[in-house]
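Problem 12. The chain below contains 160 residues. Write out its predicted structure in token notation.
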Amino acid sequence: MIRENRQHNAILSNKRGTRFVLFFYLFFVVPNSLAAAPLAHSPQDSTDLYFYDIKFEGASVHINANYQYTLQAFVDFLKKNPSLSVHIRGHVCCRPGKRISRRRARNVYRYLKRSGISKSRLSYAGYSNTIPLIDPERSDEDERRNRRVDFIITYPDEKE
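Solution.
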């Protein structure tokens, strides 16, 4: 279960009672059920957290300068939590765009790698328009919300 309190702390607890607290104020936290896209090699003994907030303009694959602070805060968080791994998912709006979605995810992957996050902790993939936040898209704003990169953060459960 993930919940967000007024201080923008995301608190995770699993069936074993393991708790993990994230202090983010630039990311939006949503329930695990909205992050339902399967990961190719998702460890069974882990818990996933889902965040999104990196938006893209039109068919652009370049990271907007407005998101540099967000990504740097995320890098700092990952450096303080070396057991976490991240799957980066690229998305597009309305029309299929596997190549663009993959390039968006790859650019964020490269940013994290250049910032000192080990590639062994990172994976990425393009999901085209298969996991929309807004469906059907009825406005430019709906399309904008679907043009994004999001993250699934996985940390191993503590062994009993």
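Discussion. The chain has a mean pLDDT of 73. Students who got a different answer should revisit the alignment rule from Section 12.3.
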